[in-house]
Amino acid sequence: IDGSITTTISGGNWLGQFVVAEGSALSITGGLYKNDPSAYLADYYEAVYDEASGFYTVKKYYEASFGGVDYVTLEEAIAAANTAGGGTVTLLHNVDLDSSITVSSDILLEGAYSVVRSDSYTGNLFTVDADCTLTLDGGITVDGGNEWVLDYDAFHTDIQKEEFLVSGMSYVTAEPGAPVATAHMISIYGSLVMNKATVQNNYGGTSLTTAPFRLYQGATLTMNDGAVARHNYINGDSALVHCNSRYATWTINDGAEITENYSTGVGGLSFFYYSYVEMNGGEMHDNYVCGKEGSIFKLYNGARFTMNDGYIHDNYAFAMSGQWGGTISVHYTSDA
Q: Given this model, what pLDDT does residue 334 score?
């Protein structure tokens, strides 16, 4: 294909390979292909390989459904649910998200697929409005899109020698080309409930606004059986939950798991201000904090932590400035 033109193929059987000259474009929306045509697919189309025939079939896909209707994008499905006053949105496909979705009604978002921050997008993924509840279930994964790597051997070696790097970020290598977050993954003004759901792979820079979860005044985060928060990193503040507002609540119940999160900032793994953390079960293990003020739970100015059940073990929290170290740090007027 040559001549600075755009060619669209919507059907037919194709045995050869395509050669597209610079300045030209090919858009495929249908047909059978002996060679993988994925490089030329139009948006919201996929190539499915059939081993029996040896051909790829190109077909349109839909990201989600609501009320018996399939929607091309997850944004459209949730907008329909918001307009209808709430309901169940079911994922039908993995989603590459490059804009924020607002939940303004009570919505159950379910399905064993991933909602992933696009490589070209660094912002917020979901905002849950006040007096609204977003429930994640059915094996869904909300993914920050950065599979960063922590050098565990170097970290543990320096801990034992009591020689900490000036910046713990030196222990972490970001995934090349992956997004460095400039906003929270999920901003919560109402309620977020995680059942069988995973939030993972967030990589935040030096901003204070990049933790996976941000709880605003009166907001609630509830992690139930099957909820997993793993492999989230920040250089600057809280690696997992940030709450600099009053009267918010984070509840961790039996079957929830919090693991492999890492912070080099002042907020540790979680920061709470005049708010409440309650652990009724679940497991918190193998999380790492190495920063100016390291702690797994940092309770500040009237915050409260109650542990009724559960298991907290094998976490590492060290403060390079010599303060706020340990698993649970309790500031004056706070209690645990």
A: 66
74: β partners: none
Mean pLDDT across 56-66: 98
**Is the model's pLDDT at 292 over the cut of 90?**
no
Characterise 31 by phi-psi region: left (phi > 0), alpha (psi -120 to 50), beta (else): left
- How many Cα neighbours within 13 Å face the side chain of 102? 7
Distance CA 106, CA 104 (A): 7
Residue linked to tokens 């993995």: 94
What whole-number distance in Å separates Cα of residue 87 and Cα of residue 267?
36
Tokens of 328: 């649970």
Contact 222, 246 (CB under 8 A): no
Burial of 88 (0-12, 13-18, 19+ CB in 10 A): middle
For the entire predicted model, the pTM comes to 0.91
Rama region for 86: left / alpha / beta (φ>0; ψ in -120 to 50; rest): left
User: What's the rounded Cα separation, in Å, for the pair 251 and 256?
Assistant: 10
Q: What is the arithmetic mean of pLDDT over 178-196?
A: 96
Cβ-based neighbour number of residue 323 at 10 Å: 11
| Three-state SS letters, the chain | CCCCCEEEECCCEECCCCCCCCCCEEEECCEEECCCCHHHECCCEEEEEECCCCEEEEEECCCEEECCEEECCHHHHHHHHHHHCCEEEEECCCEEECCCEEECCCEEEECCCEEEECCCCCCCCEEECCCCEEEEECCEEEECCCCCEECHHHHHHHHHHCCCCCCHHHHEECCCCCCCECCCCEEECCEEEECCEEEECCEECCCCCCCCEEECCCCEEEECCCEEEECCEECCCCCCEEECCCCCEEEECCCCEEECCEECCCCCCEEEECCEEEEEEEEEECCEEEEEECCCEEEECCCEEEEEEEEEECCEEEEEEEECCCCEEECCCCEC
Q: What is the pLDDT of residue 271?
A: 77
Query: What pairs with residue 181 in β-bridges?
Result: 204
